[in-house]
Amino acid sequence: MAQANPDATYIRDLFDRIAPVYDDLNQSLSLGLHKVWKQMTVDWAGARPGMNVLDVCCGSGDLALLLAPQVGPYGQVTGADFAVEQLAIAAQRSATKGYTARTTWVEADALKLPFDAEQFDALTMGYGLRNLINIPQGLSELHRVLKPGAKAAILDFHRPQSAIAQQFQQWYLDTIVLPTAERCGLTEEYAYIGPSVDRFPIGREQIILAKAAGFHQAVHYPLLGGMMGVLVAQK
Fold first, then answer.
1. In a domain, 109, yes or no
2. Range of 96's domain?
3. Which pTM does this prediction carry?
4. Largest Cα span, the chain
5. Which CATH number goes with the domain that contains 98?
6. Who contacts 175 (Cβ-Cβ below 8 Å, separation ≥6)?
7. Does 194 or 148 have the greater pLDDT score?
8. Is 38 exposed, middle or buried (0-12, 13-18, 19+ CB in 10 A)?
């Protein structure tokens, strides 16, 4: 059974364990829609040619590898994650796509990023904020490493507000996600999703937290009936 309030070590080990099947499961469980949501996140971050950009909690590199063509051959993408098995897969995928020269993969704690203040022109985060043990501290770190005027676009699962959407989300977790994970021998790992969504601040609460972290502007865009969303915060 997933821990009620997992610590950072538990979460890191979880993502290391699921690394070999992470991409295939995401593709299957989202019916391919995760690619659309991730491209929207990259677009909202505002990455352009020549920029130095950061993808925090990069996992196997999906968002970072979408950022790479955005920044072009003279830009740079850094993917940061504390799960080394995920980083290894990200590096392999980057090499396959021919992006090795413009991508760097760094083992890092999102609550204490190993980067200078005001280092990055844009930032993305996919399905990572929800997993931080201290969300306000994580947002403060994102704010710290961004240049003035730069944007952070943060994609994640959410707890929808409508009763119908809540019922559908619970049905989906119970009848699609968990049985699929069980067939892959990952029951414990994916049982973690439901409790983590329940704990996660809803959109308007995220806006308040982002502004408290120092962001000048923040907007939350609900997706899929509020079951998914992107927080866009500008420094």
1. yes
2. 8-234
3. 0.82
4. 48
5. 3.40.50.150
6. none
7. 148
8. buried
Per-residue pLDDT tens over the stretch 164-203:
777 777 777 777 677 766 766 666 656 666 677 778 898 9
> Into how many domains does the chain fold?
1
What is the secondary structure of 117-184 as a DSSP string?
TT-EEEEEEES-GGG-S-HHHHHHHHHHHEEEEEEEEEEEE---SSHHHHHHHHHHIIIIIHHHHHHT
Residues making up the chain, counted from first to last: 235
Q: Flag whether pLDDT at 121 surpasses 50.
A: yes
Per DSSP (E only), the strands in the chain are 52-56, 76-81, 103-107, 120-126, 146-157, 217-223, 228-234
Q: Which residue has the tokens 């396959």?
A: 96
d(CA 69, CA 76) in angstroms, rounded, equals 10
Instruction: Say if 3 falls within a structural domain.
Output: no
Q: Is residue 152 part of a domain?
A: yes
| Residue 62 domain-assigned (yes or no) | yes
234, β-bridge pairs: 151, 217
Alpha-carbon gap, residue 172 to 225, rounded angstroms: 13
- Closest to 56 (Cα-Cα) out of 119, 1, 111, 12: 111
- DSSP class of residue 73 equals T
Query: How far is it, in rounded angstroms, from Cα 222 to Cα 71?
Result: 26
